[in-house]
Amino acid sequence: MIVVVKKNQNEKQVQNLMNWIRDLGLDVHVSRGENSTIIGLVGDTSKVDIDLVRSLDIVESVTRVQEPYKNANRKFHPEDTIVDVAGHKFGGKHFQIIAGPCSVESEKQIIEVAEAVKKAGATLLRGGAFKPRTSPYSFQGLGLDGLKLLKKAKAETGMPIVTELMSERMLDEYEDVDVIQIGARNMQNFDLLKAVGRVDKPILLKRGISATIEEWLMSAEYVMSEGNQNVILCERGIRTFEPYTRNTLDLSAIPILKERTHLPVIVDPSHASGVARLVRPLSLASVGAGADGLIIEVHNDPPHALCDGAQSLRPEQFDEVVQSVRPLLPVVHKEMDV
Amino acid sequence: MIVVVKKNQNEKQVQNLMNWIRDLGLDVHVSRGENSTIIGLVGDTSKVDIDLVRSLDIVESVTRVQEPYKNANRKFHPEDTIVDVAGHKFGGKHFQIIAGPCSVESEKQIIEVAEAVKKAGATLLRGGAFKPRTSPYSFQGLGLDGLKLLKKAKAETGMPIVTELMSERMLDEYEDVDVIQIGARNMQNFDLLKAVGRVDKPILLKRGISATIEEWLMSAEYVMSEGNQNVILCERGIRTFEPYTRNTLDLSAIPILKERTHLPVIVDPSHASGVARLVRPLSLASVGAGADGLIIEVHNDPPHALCDGAQSLRPEQFDEVVQSVRPLLPVVHKEMDV
Amino acid sequence: MIVVVKKNQNEKQVQNLMNWIRDLGLDVHVSRGENSTIIGLVGDTSKVDIDLVRSLDIVESVTRVQEPYKNANRKFHPEDTIVDVAGHKFGGKHFQIIAGPCSVESEKQIIEVAEAVKKAGATLLRGGAFKPRTSPYSFQGLGLDGLKLLKKAKAETGMPIVTELMSERMLDEYEDVDVIQIGARNMQNFDLLKAVGRVDKPILLKRGISATIEEWLMSAEYVMSEGNQNVILCERGIRTFEPYTRNTLDLSAIPILKERTHLPVIVDPSHASGVARLVRPLSLASVGAGADGLIIEVHNDPPHALCDGAQSLRPEQFDEVVQSVRPLLPVVHKEMDV
Amino acid sequence: MIVVVKKNQNEKQVQNLMNWIRDLGLDVHVSRGENSTIIGLVGDTSKVDIDLVRSLDIVESVTRVQEPYKNANRKFHPEDTIVDVAGHKFGGKHFQIIAGPCSVESEKQIIEVAEAVKKAGATLLRGGAFKPRTSPYSFQGLGLDGLKLLKKAKAETGMPIVTELMSERMLDEYEDVDVIQIGARNMQNFDLLKAVGRVDKPILLKRGISATIEEWLMSAEYVMSEGNQNVILCERGIRTFEPYTRNTLDLSAIPILKERTHLPVIVDPSHASGVARLVRPLSLASVGAGADGLIIEVHNDPPHALCDGAQSLRPEQFDEVVQSVRPLLPVVHKEMDV
User: How many Å apart are CA A289 and CA A291, to the nearest integer?
Assistant: First the structure.
């Protein structure tokens, strides 16, 4: 970390700052110029509160040289982490497609969708039991009944299941869940992150809609610092000024993450755009950008037959997306299990 | 809610949509034009999932005429809600200043700061015991010990206390806390919102850094729909592209909220800017914009004496801010308790 | 256009509004409900100032049903526009790669780069003669001398040239330029747009860094409404809160534009990210998303040999990008000229 | 400027970088640490292209210590610049209100509005003759006829006039204009900025809707570097994700600008919000934040009588705003001319 001190500052305050840095166990290198004094902090600076230092009156600017994340940092773990979910691998040369309905609605629905997406090439089944909704008056999911239906679908099809956890209180109920999803709205629910960090299951960590890549990696770090190293990152769009899409899918994040971290990164094109018609082109784009997989919403539920255009695809549309993705994989040196 | 159906759509799908709307208990008014069909939904549309309707293939656009919030809506509660905290009132003609340190650090610190801010005109004491931090390696607050120190400061000075709750699990420990703060990162932690909705205490609900005003009101609605009507909103800056400030304080939000909701609205100029020098001008601007109060960080802790310029003010600087705010209050028809 | 009038409004004002609408030559359909009155505007609403109507006191909301652009609108021109540049076609099944240095610096530089990118598969040569720079103290390009060098490179290699026009005053000098580029900063320089709308040359219109897709299409409309229908749109990233990339490439914009307009759309992965390492993955992602081409910065200038990592690729890196793009094209039903 | 070089870099490239820096006339201070090498650039770094350096492969990060603007920099001009417009002063302890219609529409309109706003306390008259409109089909202003009417209003009332210039071509027609406004969309139309930099008239430079404060000051620098030091900055809202207001007024920008630059700063609350009801609270907030003045839209034109709620105030509403602003001015040590 490099701290630039303003010109003509009270020397006592500068000394106070340097003493405080040394008290944190760091070495201090000072270089005094005509217009400013530069202080280099050497050692493990991840414990230095950069905002606090930046806000000091005597400080002109602060630059972090070392990233604030360690467990998630590729510098310290150069090899790709491979997250194994019942034999299906995320990371490295592997490419996985997770698919399923937005919400679990009935036994018939979840099993029919599971069978359809499995046939098309999906290897994991997703489905919401507890649903985060902006309005308290919107459908909040089937809850524990939804979890039970997911487990039935797993028993029936052999597909591992991915579902969102919204509250630490419910963690005991997630024993048979294969991958615990932390949703975008809870990306900085630090108590929840710590709780799943103590669990022996892969965590699918969605990016918050206004989270920087660094904040997202810091949230992964919360999970990993508690012991659980099996984190899969999921880009799902960020909030911008553009109204045509619900969120703006940030595909540049994928190659950037691939440089910074060893964790696998997948993309959710359904939530990013909110429009089924965009799922196919955004899936192809995600593959081109280097993603390790996709998570796609698929429904077949008759009461929703009216919503042909929702962000969920029908099974036959999902099949088309998988078919169009397959020929791109060799170009990016990836392969699907099936 | 008004739904515009695209030209030349499959009539059966249009009928399906209208039947589905009627099944939700709403009336349907149809007006067929040359280029499009307009469907008006009449009744309580707060239960209609606007995203779902918007995403239908046959739908050109959807406009909500009625806001999706009810308890928080000024249309249904034209009078200002006055939230009473141990005799100190938020809303209407009242103006309150909440002050205190970012984190509770020691008995001496919290009591000294409490006495200083009380003397200057603050009526409530703030202080963090559980601190949400981007990094798992940053100081996370004193936790339960911090709560105890806050209660001592309350006993000593008579000031009601405001502190952040990060996890439902801790709720029992907050019995002597006067106002429970829900932080920006938890604004859409819906389980936590529901939990504090069942508590008989005022809730200080901070705006999420990328929350729209409507999403923020929907989070207030989560609290209120569980029974607790005592919600104080707190604007603390939104995330934009501008790097000079940590967040961009959105003061237009205040007059807009005053039109839309009856709830009191205060401003946190310390967190918005992240810079102590900006606290005074942004406090004055907040008063001008019509805020019902301020929440300001003040410290006096010697180990931090070096951080003169942090977002926290020293007691004498805080006193100056209060002194400069006082003469503005009559202009906006507000008054302080002391 | 649908206007929702608030409950209990002054009837005279509502009549004034309707008369004003009729004066614009539009038909008015009124539907009076219990809570609101809905006014439908039928006819060519592109001349209605939606902001003005939205801001009326009596108006609750306004929804545009018809897009405000006509010439650029796919509804009125369902077939893809094919823009032909000296036999190289943009749009439809065609895929073109434009390449060249950020700035023209010398005869040797521009000719060497031109030859190298031509060999690798680029069909048009780009190069900046007049450079828009944030600082008045930064290099502003070689100006007219730069244009001359570009023309030499064109004569030498037979490649058509693309270069930015910053001022209408310079238009006469662009006679031998094949495609006139309008940069992101000038996307709403309406006088410049009108000027190039009267020119008989293709226009490469870059998206402004904070322009919505609709505003961008309206800028294309400015050009087209003056007569020039040969507009190529170029996505080059939008401004967001994410600091790791200079801008966030909005690849969702491509399939959305493909629905809304018949104009060709290309992507500039060099400027979007500002980092050479990201050009390859973002190029592949652009192809996946359905782009009609790429515009990529390539340099070979010795004084810049130090900037291996700038947003510009070396010729051999550019060759690699083109080689990795080729196998993706059949998947998206596109083909290159060479 | 401080450049941090990555660990284990090719020494030859590091030497190339240092030689290149020295060729720019700067001194180089090198400090080699275990994990990185730090290069300090000493001298006038305003000519160093920070993006280019940042993008080098060998570079970890770059921090600018010295701001890239000189003429606009308060460090080099500690005293407030006072811009004098026919005796009305902007900056220092002065507070000016500019008012007038969005567009000049007729002689009667502009003179009536001018007389009304003058009576209420406005000292300068604004009015649009050339209007930048998103759509080519919207009213583009009366053009030269509008300029003539403005001059008539000036002759009639003695008020200096402020109006927008959209094209350098029109500059000769602005001889009798007192203040030339550069609109938000042209904030980075560098040819236009240079042109008005050679004019002997104050320039009102509006902030671009997605311009950072630094980019805005660099645009002021473009004007000033050509000789014209009389620049008045005007904050008018930035583009964010919040849909309730057209733009988000960034009032934190005012105290930040007051630290960084000596130029006067005014606020346009009419355009920022797009809603007349917000003009009063945002005007008071602007005064609280330390603005040197306001620019407010006022209309009285009968054909627009229907738009009571547009962003323009009626004269009596404008009078109310001025009356409510007056008592705040002494608190912030400002005074109006009349």
Answer: 6
Chain A CB within 8 Å of residue B310 CB: yes
Cα dist from B33 to B54, C3, C27, whole Å = 20, 15, 11
User: Across the strands, what pairs with B267?
Assistant: B235, B294
State yes or no: pLDDT of A302 exceeds 80: no
What is the interface pTM, i.e. ipTM, of the complex?
0.91
3-state percent breakdown (helix, strand, coil) of chain A, nearest 5: 40, 20, 40
Residue D310 has its nearest CB partner, among C52, C133, C307, at C52
User: Within chain C, which residues score under 70 in pLDDT?
Assistant: 33-35, 301-310
**Cβ–Cβ < 8 Å for A118, A157:** yes
Contact criterion met (CB < 8 Å) for C240 and B243: no
C11: exposed, middle or buried (Cβ count in 10 Å: 0-12, 13-18, 19+) = exposed
Identify the residue whose tokens are 């904040």.
A215
Structure tokens at A155: 């028993």
**How many Å apart are CA A316 and CA A303, to the nearest integer?**
18
Q: Do D275 and C55 touch (CB under 8 A)?
A: yes
What is the three-class DSSP state of C68? coil
What is the SS3 assignment for A183?
coil
A287: nearest Cα among A123, A158, A97: A97
Is the pLDDT at D158 greater than 90? The verdict is: yes
Q: Give CA–CA dist C193/A266, Å, rounded.
A: 41
Residue A249 and residue A272 in contact, taking contact as beta carbons nearer than 8 Å: yes
The domain ranges of chain B are 2-63, 83-336
On whether the D83-336 domain is CATH 3.90.1150.10, my answer is no
Chain D: closest CA distance from residue C227 (Å): 12
CATH 3.30.70.1140 fits C2-63, yes or no: yes
Per-residue pLDDT reduced to its tens digit, D94-114? 999 999 998 998 999 999 999
Q: Which two tokens stand for residue A139?
A: 């459908």
Q: Bigger pLDDT: A275 or B261?
A: B261
* pLDDT band, very low/low/confident/very high, at A305 (cuts 50, 70, 90): very low
Give me the DSSP letters along A81-140: P-EEETTEEEBTTEEEEEEE-SB---HHHHHHHHHHHHHHT--EEE-BSS---SSTTS--
Q: What is residue B306's predicted lDDT score, i.e. its pLDDT?
A: 45
What string of DSSP letters covers B236-286?
Answer: --B--S--SSSSB--TTHHHHHHHHB-S-EEE-HHHHH--GGGHHHHHHHH
Which of C49, C225, C309 is facing D55, going by the closest CB pair? C309
Contact A308 B46 (CB under 8 A): no
B251 or C17, which is more confident: B251
CA closest to C67 among chain D residues: D135
Say how far apart CA D231 and CA D261 lie, in whole Å: 11
3-state secondary structure of D59: strand
Is B190 in contact with A166 (Cβ distance < 8 A)? yes
Give residue for tokens 């409404």.
C225
- pLDDT in the model for residue A306: 46
Task: To the nearest 10°, report the CA torsion of B219, B220, B221, B223.
Answer: 100
CB contact under 8 A, B35 and C239: no
Q: How many Cα neighbours within 13 Å face the side chain of B254? A: 30
